[in-house]
Design goal:
- It is a single chain.
- By secondary structure, the protein is an alpha/beta fold.
- The protein is built from six helices and 15 strands.
- The strands form three sheets. The protein has a seven-stranded mixed β-sheet, sandwiched between helices. A four-stranded mixed β-sheet has the order 8-5-6-13, covered by helices on one side. The protein has a four-stranded antiparallel β-sheet with strand order 10-11-9-12.
- Helix 2 packs parallel to helix 3.
- The chain starts with 7 loop residues before the first helix and ends in a 9-residue tail after the last strand.
- The chain binds arabinose-5-phosphate.
- The site of arabinose-5-phosphate (A5P) has 17 residues, from helix 2 and helix 4.
- The site of arabinose-5-phosphate has 17 residues, from helix 2 and helix 4.
Length: 237
């Protein structure tokens, strides 16, 4: 579930830095969320100043921001992205794992990231943790929700159907499915958990991304740091 953390200044620093990596003629996957939105708007400015670029949005939200920014849009049928710029809800300080799906867009985000040559993750520094401990969002077929909930409990998780804020009933994704947020406490072995979640019938996609990112841009109040995955732990970062 979405908790707003981190300053807009830090998110903007990360997003705008990522947008500088886009080169003439590229096809760019456009991530979802407030940090990726800064990258999309910065790309819109660059396009207005002559950069030729095409975007593949990962959600209806990203699509709306990209259209407002004046970007040309395309889809995976027309070509695969050279680069994806996307946010995350939590990132392991050391390793390759991160959690996405706070905006219920993780299925398309994972598809576009998997299709891309390079994946750039943009976050503010509040998202970095020693061990992942947020709930993992699952996109679930509506008819499968009770079965998935039982399976999650059987592996020690606590499932919670995500409720909509401005509508009665649950969140419905861009793909017409439900979102079940699953609390597991601190996650020691994200790869193993990712495999278990992926194997559950009715789970369209889970929000654990292991070994998907290539580069991490962390925004702060005063600038950015850029690292390659797998990340190394930095004391006191
Ligand atoms: C969308 O489903 C998520 O995966 C987002 O990428 C994530 O929630 C990051 O959003 P913010 O940049 O708004 O924190």
């Amino acid at each position: 579930m979405k908790e707003r953390t981190g300053s807009e200044v830090a998110k903007r620093a990360a997003g705008e830095h990522a947008a500088t990596q886009v080169e003439e003629g590229m096809c760019v996957g456009l991530g979802t969320g407030s940090t990726a939105a800064h990258a999309i708007r910065a790309l819109g400015h660059r396009a207005a100043n002559g950069l030729t670029v095409q975007g593949i949005p990962t959600s209806l939200g990203a699509r709306a921001i990209a259209r407002e920014a004046g970007l040309s849009l395309t889809d995976l049928d027309e070509g695969l992205p050279d680069l994806v710029i996307d946010g995350a809800d939590q990132v392991e300080q050391a390793g390759t794992a991160l959690i996405k799906g706070g905006g219920a867009a993780h299925t398309r985000e994972k598809v576009v990231a998997t299709a891309a040559d390079r994946v750039v993750i943009v976050i503010d520094e509040t998202k970095l943790v020693d061990r992942l401990n947020r709930s993992i969002p699952l996109e679930v077929l509506p008819a499968a929700q009770p079965v998935v909930a039982r399976e999650i409990r059987s592996i020690g998780g606590e499932p919670s159907l995500r409720a909509a804020r401005a509508k009665d009933g649950p969140v419905v994704t861009d793909n017409g499915n439900l979102v079940v947020d699953c609390a597991f406490g601190p996650i020691d072995d994200p790869e193993t958990l990712a495999g278990m979640l992926a194997a559950m019938p009715g789970v369209v996609e889970h929000g654990l991304f292991c070994d998907v990112g290539d580069e991490l841009i962390v925004g702060t109040e005063t600038g950015v740091s850029v690292e390659s995955f797998p990340l190394e732990s930095h004391e006191g970062r």
